[in-house]
Amino acid sequence: MNPVFNQSINIQFPNNISLTIKREDLIHPFVSGNKFRKLKYNLLQAKAENKDTLLTFGGAFSNHIAAVAYAGKEQGFKTIGIIRGDELFDKIEENPTLKFVQENGMEFEFVSREEYRLKSEASFIEKMKDKFGDFYLVPEGGTNELAVKGCEEILTEEDSVFDYVCCAVGTGGTISGLINSVLPNQKILGFPALKGGFLNDEIRIFAKKDNWNLISDYHFGGYGKINLELIEFINAFFEKTKVPLDPIYTGKMVFGVIDLISKNYFPAHSKILLIHTGGLQGIDGMNIKLKQKKLPILKTND
Predict the structure, then answer these.
(1) What is the pLDDT of residues 79-115, one digit of tens each?
(2) Distance, CA of 166 to CA of 256 (rounded, Å)
(3) Which residues are in the Tryptophan synthase beta chain-like PALP domain (predicted)?
(4) Taking residues 237-266, what's their average pLDDT?
(5) If you ran DSSP here, which 8-state letter would residue 59 be given?
(6) Cβ atoms 166, 274 nearer than 8 A
(7) With DSSP H G I counted as helix, E B as strand and the rest as coil, what are the percentages for the chain, rounded to 5?
(8) Which of 29, 36, 39, 104 is least surrounded by Cβ atoms within 10 Å, i.e. has the fewest?
(9) Which residues fall within 8 angstroms of residue 85, CB to CB, at 6 or more apart?
(10) What strand order describes the sheet that includes 136-137?
Protein backbone atom coordinates (compact mmCIF):
# COMPACT_ATOMS: atom_id res chain seq x y z
CA MET A 1 0.00 0.00 0.00
CA ASN A 2 1.42 3.35 -1.05
CA PRO A 3 0.95 6.47 1.09
CA VAL A 4 -2.09 8.53 0.13
CA PHE A 5 -1.66 12.30 0.16
CA ASN A 6 -3.81 15.38 -0.23
CA GLN A 7 -2.86 17.47 -3.26
CA SER A 8 -3.88 21.13 -3.44
CA ILE A 9 -5.45 22.13 -6.76
CA ASN A 10 -3.64 25.28 -7.87
CA ILE A 11 -6.55 26.86 -9.71
CA GLN A 12 -7.95 30.22 -8.66
CA PHE A 13 -11.63 29.97 -7.72
CA PRO A 14 -14.02 32.81 -6.86
CA ASN A 15 -14.97 33.67 -3.26
CA ASN A 16 -11.67 32.32 -1.94
CA ILE A 17 -12.84 28.71 -2.34
CA SER A 18 -10.08 26.08 -2.25
CA LEU A 19 -9.97 22.59 -3.73
CA THR A 20 -7.85 19.68 -2.53
CA ILE A 21 -7.86 16.15 -3.95
CA LYS A 22 -7.11 13.04 -1.92
CA ARG A 23 -4.99 10.84 -4.19
CA GLU A 24 -6.51 7.48 -3.35
CA ASP A 25 -5.72 6.52 -6.95
CA LEU A 26 -2.07 6.12 -5.89
CA ILE A 27 -2.81 3.64 -3.10
CA HIS A 28 -1.88 0.61 -5.26
CA PRO A 29 -0.94 0.28 -8.96
CA PHE A 30 -3.72 -2.22 -9.74
CA VAL A 31 -6.07 -2.22 -6.73
CA SER A 32 -6.48 1.52 -6.44
CA GLY A 33 -8.75 3.94 -4.67
CA ASN A 34 -11.99 2.69 -3.23
CA LYS A 35 -11.43 -0.83 -4.63
CA PHE A 36 -8.54 -1.31 -2.22
CA ARG A 37 -10.69 -0.02 0.64
CA LYS A 38 -13.68 -2.19 -0.26
CA LEU A 39 -11.68 -5.38 -0.66
CA LYS A 40 -9.51 -5.04 2.46
CA TYR A 41 -11.92 -6.50 5.00
CA ASN A 42 -13.70 -8.76 2.51
CA LEU A 43 -10.47 -10.59 1.76
CA LEU A 44 -9.76 -10.93 5.48
CA GLN A 45 -13.26 -12.35 5.96
CA ALA A 46 -12.83 -14.79 3.07
CA LYS A 47 -9.66 -16.09 4.72
CA ALA A 48 -11.39 -16.30 8.11
CA GLU A 49 -14.08 -18.47 6.47
CA ASN A 50 -11.37 -20.65 4.88
CA LYS A 51 -12.61 -19.84 1.38
CA ASP A 52 -10.13 -20.26 -1.46
CA THR A 53 -12.31 -18.80 -4.25
CA LEU A 54 -13.76 -15.32 -4.80
CA LEU A 55 -16.74 -14.85 -7.11
CA THR A 56 -17.93 -11.44 -8.22
CA PHE A 57 -19.69 -9.51 -10.99
CA GLY A 58 -18.98 -6.71 -13.45
CA GLY A 59 -19.12 -5.28 -16.93
CA ALA A 60 -16.67 -5.12 -19.80
CA PHE A 61 -14.40 -2.41 -18.36
CA SER A 62 -15.11 -2.93 -14.65
CA ASN A 63 -12.58 -1.46 -12.21
CA HIS A 64 -13.97 -3.83 -9.61
CA ILE A 65 -13.39 -6.95 -11.74
CA ALA A 66 -9.80 -5.86 -12.44
CA ALA A 67 -9.15 -5.19 -8.75
CA VAL A 68 -10.60 -8.52 -7.58
CA ALA A 69 -8.56 -10.44 -10.16
CA TYR A 70 -5.28 -8.83 -9.12
CA ALA A 71 -5.95 -8.80 -5.37
CA GLY A 72 -7.14 -12.39 -5.51
CA LYS A 73 -3.98 -13.51 -7.28
CA GLU A 74 -1.82 -11.52 -4.83
CA GLN A 75 -3.61 -13.05 -1.82
CA GLY A 76 -3.72 -16.63 -3.14
CA PHE A 77 -7.40 -16.88 -4.13
CA LYS A 78 -8.89 -18.41 -7.22
CA THR A 79 -11.19 -15.80 -8.83
CA ILE A 80 -14.34 -16.07 -10.93
CA GLY A 81 -15.92 -13.15 -12.75
CA ILE A 82 -19.55 -13.17 -13.85
CA ILE A 83 -19.37 -10.78 -16.81
CA ARG A 84 -22.38 -8.84 -18.13
CA GLY A 85 -22.76 -9.44 -21.88
CA ASP A 86 -22.37 -12.88 -23.47
CA GLU A 87 -21.24 -11.19 -26.70
CA LEU A 88 -17.90 -10.48 -24.98
CA PHE A 89 -16.97 -14.17 -24.94
CA ASP A 90 -14.73 -13.96 -28.02
CA LYS A 91 -13.60 -10.35 -27.54
CA ILE A 92 -11.24 -10.72 -24.58
CA GLU A 93 -8.13 -9.86 -26.60
CA GLU A 94 -9.76 -6.65 -27.85
CA ASN A 95 -10.66 -5.51 -24.33
CA PRO A 96 -7.78 -4.17 -22.16
CA THR A 97 -9.64 -4.81 -18.89
CA LEU A 98 -10.72 -8.38 -19.66
CA LYS A 99 -7.27 -9.20 -21.04
CA PHE A 100 -5.63 -7.91 -17.84
CA VAL A 101 -8.11 -9.83 -15.72
CA GLN A 102 -7.52 -13.08 -17.63
CA GLU A 103 -3.74 -12.63 -17.35
CA ASN A 104 -4.22 -12.44 -13.59
CA GLY A 105 -5.97 -15.79 -13.48
CA MET A 106 -9.67 -14.95 -13.30
CA GLU A 107 -12.05 -17.50 -14.78
CA PHE A 108 -14.94 -15.95 -16.73
CA GLU A 109 -18.62 -16.76 -16.91
CA PHE A 110 -20.24 -14.59 -19.57
CA VAL A 111 -23.99 -14.17 -19.16
CA SER A 112 -26.64 -12.28 -21.09
CA ARG A 113 -27.80 -8.92 -19.80
CA GLU A 114 -31.16 -10.48 -18.95
CA GLU A 115 -29.57 -13.20 -16.84
CA TYR A 116 -27.17 -10.70 -15.26
CA ARG A 117 -30.14 -8.83 -13.76
CA LEU A 118 -30.89 -11.98 -11.74
CA LYS A 119 -27.40 -12.08 -10.18
CA SER A 120 -28.62 -11.31 -6.63
CA GLU A 121 -31.32 -14.00 -6.62
CA ALA A 122 -30.76 -17.18 -4.62
CA SER A 123 -31.46 -19.40 -7.64
CA PHE A 124 -28.69 -17.70 -9.64
CA ILE A 125 -26.19 -18.01 -6.77
CA GLU A 126 -27.07 -21.69 -6.35
CA LYS A 127 -26.54 -22.23 -10.06
CA MET A 128 -23.06 -20.71 -9.75
CA LYS A 129 -22.29 -22.92 -6.72
CA ASP A 130 -23.32 -25.99 -8.69
CA LYS A 131 -20.91 -24.97 -11.43
CA PHE A 132 -17.95 -23.60 -9.46
CA GLY A 133 -18.26 -25.12 -5.99
CA ASP A 134 -18.02 -23.15 -2.75
CA PHE A 135 -16.92 -19.50 -2.96
CA TYR A 136 -16.85 -16.19 -1.12
CA LEU A 137 -19.25 -13.84 -2.86
CA VAL A 138 -18.13 -10.24 -3.38
CA PRO A 139 -21.10 -8.12 -4.59
CA GLU A 140 -20.98 -6.09 -7.80
CA GLY A 141 -18.94 -2.97 -7.10
CA GLY A 142 -17.80 -4.58 -3.86
CA THR A 143 -20.37 -2.85 -1.66
CA ASN A 144 -21.37 -4.57 1.58
CA GLU A 145 -20.89 -3.85 5.29
CA LEU A 146 -17.21 -4.86 5.18
CA ALA A 147 -16.61 -2.60 2.18
CA VAL A 148 -18.20 0.33 4.02
CA LYS A 149 -15.96 -0.43 7.02
CA GLY A 150 -12.93 -0.13 4.73
CA CYS A 151 -14.18 3.13 3.23
CA GLU A 152 -14.60 4.58 6.71
CA GLU A 153 -10.78 4.63 6.79
CA ILE A 154 -10.40 6.99 3.81
CA LEU A 155 -10.63 10.18 5.86
CA THR A 156 -7.91 10.94 8.39
CA GLU A 157 -7.40 13.47 11.15
CA GLU A 158 -5.83 15.97 8.75
CA ASP A 159 -9.10 16.06 6.78
CA SER A 160 -10.97 17.72 9.65
CA VAL A 161 -10.15 21.15 8.15
CA PHE A 162 -12.50 20.65 5.18
CA ASP A 163 -16.07 21.92 5.03
CA TYR A 164 -17.17 19.64 2.18
CA VAL A 165 -16.05 16.17 1.11
CA CYS A 166 -17.07 15.19 -2.44
CA CYS A 167 -16.99 11.81 -4.15
CA ALA A 168 -18.36 9.98 -7.13
CA VAL A 169 -21.11 7.44 -6.40
CA GLY A 170 -21.56 4.07 -8.06
CA THR A 171 -23.05 1.44 -5.76
CA GLY A 172 -23.02 3.67 -2.66
CA GLY A 173 -20.39 1.93 -0.55
CA THR A 174 -17.71 4.61 -0.66
CA ILE A 175 -20.00 7.50 0.18
CA SER A 176 -21.53 5.47 3.02
CA GLY A 177 -18.11 4.99 4.59
CA LEU A 178 -17.35 8.69 4.22
CA ILE A 179 -20.70 9.67 5.75
CA ASN A 180 -20.02 7.46 8.76
CA SER A 181 -16.58 8.96 9.37
CA VAL A 182 -17.03 12.73 8.80
CA LEU A 183 -17.29 15.25 11.60
CA PRO A 184 -20.67 16.82 12.47
CA ASN A 185 -19.70 20.16 10.88
CA GLN A 186 -18.72 18.57 7.56
CA LYS A 187 -21.02 17.87 4.60
CA ILE A 188 -20.65 14.97 2.16
CA LEU A 189 -21.69 15.53 -1.46
CA GLY A 190 -22.09 12.54 -3.75
CA PHE A 191 -22.14 12.72 -7.54
CA PRO A 192 -23.90 9.63 -8.98
CA ALA A 193 -22.47 8.12 -12.16
CA LEU A 194 -25.86 6.51 -12.89
CA LYS A 195 -29.29 7.87 -13.65
CA GLY A 196 -32.14 7.09 -11.26
CA GLY A 197 -33.10 7.93 -7.70
CA PHE A 198 -32.59 4.50 -6.12
CA LEU A 199 -29.20 5.36 -4.59
CA ASN A 200 -30.63 7.29 -1.64
CA ASP A 201 -32.23 4.11 -0.32
CA GLU A 202 -29.08 2.05 -0.95
CA ILE A 203 -26.93 4.52 0.97
CA ARG A 204 -29.35 4.65 3.89
CA ILE A 205 -28.82 0.92 4.42
CA PHE A 206 -25.24 1.65 5.53
CA ALA A 207 -25.04 5.36 6.37
CA LYS A 208 -25.48 6.34 10.02
CA LYS A 209 -25.66 10.15 9.63
CA ASP A 210 -27.71 12.67 7.68
CA ASN A 211 -25.09 15.26 6.71
CA TRP A 212 -24.98 14.25 3.04
CA ASN A 213 -26.63 15.00 -0.23
CA LEU A 214 -26.62 13.52 -3.74
CA ILE A 215 -26.23 15.86 -6.71
CA SER A 216 -27.61 14.06 -9.74
CA ASP A 217 -27.01 16.65 -12.47
CA TYR A 218 -23.61 15.45 -13.70
CA HIS A 219 -24.01 11.88 -14.96
CA PHE A 220 -23.73 13.09 -18.59
CA GLY A 221 -26.59 10.87 -19.72
CA GLY A 222 -25.95 7.82 -17.56
CA TYR A 223 -23.38 5.23 -16.62
CA GLY A 224 -20.47 5.08 -19.05
CA LYS A 225 -21.81 7.99 -21.13
CA ILE A 226 -19.27 10.62 -22.16
CA ASN A 227 -19.19 13.58 -24.53
CA LEU A 228 -16.72 16.06 -25.99
CA GLU A 229 -17.29 18.58 -23.19
CA LEU A 230 -16.30 16.04 -20.53
CA ILE A 231 -13.28 14.80 -22.50
CA GLU A 232 -12.00 18.35 -22.95
CA PHE A 233 -12.58 19.10 -19.25
CA ILE A 234 -10.66 16.00 -18.10
CA ASN A 235 -7.76 16.75 -20.44
CA ALA A 236 -7.64 20.44 -19.44
CA PHE A 237 -7.73 19.49 -15.74
CA PHE A 238 -4.79 17.12 -16.32
CA GLU A 239 -2.85 19.83 -18.14
CA LYS A 240 -3.32 22.22 -15.20
CA THR A 241 -2.86 19.83 -12.28
CA LYS A 242 -1.19 16.63 -13.59
CA VAL A 243 -4.01 14.70 -11.92
CA PRO A 244 -5.56 12.11 -14.27
CA LEU A 245 -9.31 11.60 -13.91
CA ASP A 246 -11.38 8.70 -15.18
CA PRO A 247 -14.44 9.49 -17.37
CA ILE A 248 -16.91 7.22 -15.57
CA TYR A 249 -16.62 8.48 -12.00
CA THR A 250 -14.04 11.06 -10.88
CA GLY A 251 -14.11 13.13 -14.08
CA LYS A 252 -17.84 13.74 -13.72
CA MET A 253 -17.53 14.46 -9.99
CA VAL A 254 -14.76 17.03 -10.44
CA PHE A 255 -16.63 18.62 -13.36
CA GLY A 256 -19.69 18.90 -11.13
CA VAL A 257 -17.85 20.47 -8.21
CA ILE A 258 -16.15 23.10 -10.37
CA ASP A 259 -19.43 23.87 -12.15
CA LEU A 260 -21.17 24.30 -8.77
CA ILE A 261 -18.41 26.68 -7.65
CA SER A 262 -19.10 28.81 -10.74
CA LYS A 263 -22.80 28.85 -9.80
CA ASN A 264 -22.09 30.02 -6.21
CA TYR A 265 -23.34 26.78 -4.67
CA PHE A 266 -20.64 26.83 -1.98
CA PRO A 267 -20.31 29.58 0.63
CA ALA A 268 -17.28 31.89 0.40
CA HIS A 269 -14.04 30.51 1.89
CA SER A 270 -15.26 26.91 1.63
CA LYS A 271 -12.54 24.27 1.82
CA ILE A 272 -13.51 21.34 -0.42
CA LEU A 273 -11.90 17.88 -0.43
CA LEU A 274 -12.34 15.71 -3.54
CA ILE A 275 -11.88 11.95 -3.16
CA HIS A 276 -10.05 10.41 -6.13
CA THR A 277 -11.47 6.89 -6.13
CA GLY A 278 -9.14 5.51 -8.81
CA GLY A 279 -10.68 3.86 -11.85
CA LEU A 280 -7.89 4.82 -14.21
CA GLN A 281 -7.46 1.29 -15.61
CA GLY A 282 -10.68 1.76 -17.62
CA ILE A 283 -9.25 4.64 -19.65
CA ASP A 284 -7.49 2.38 -22.18
CA GLY A 285 -10.81 0.75 -23.03
CA MET A 286 -12.60 4.09 -23.19
CA ASN A 287 -9.94 5.47 -25.53
CA ILE A 288 -10.54 2.59 -27.94
CA LYS A 289 -14.22 3.62 -28.06
CA LEU A 290 -13.35 7.31 -28.46
CA LYS A 291 -11.05 6.57 -31.41
CA GLN A 292 -13.86 4.61 -33.07
CA LYS A 293 -16.14 7.64 -32.62
CA LYS A 294 -13.38 9.96 -33.91
CA LEU A 295 -13.32 11.86 -30.61
CA PRO A 296 -10.18 13.05 -28.77
CA ILE A 297 -8.65 10.52 -26.43
CA LEU A 298 -8.17 11.00 -22.70
CA LYS A 299 -4.70 11.93 -21.49
CA THR A 300 -3.18 10.19 -18.49
CA ASN A 301 0.45 11.24 -18.99
CA ASP A 302 2.45 14.00 -20.69
Answers:
(1) 999 999 998 888 899 999 999 999 999 999 999 999 9
(2) 10
(3) 17-278
(4) 96
(5) -
(6) yes
(7) 45, 15, 40
(8) 29
(9) 59, 60, 110, 112, 113, 116
(10) 107-111, 78-84, 53-58, 136-137
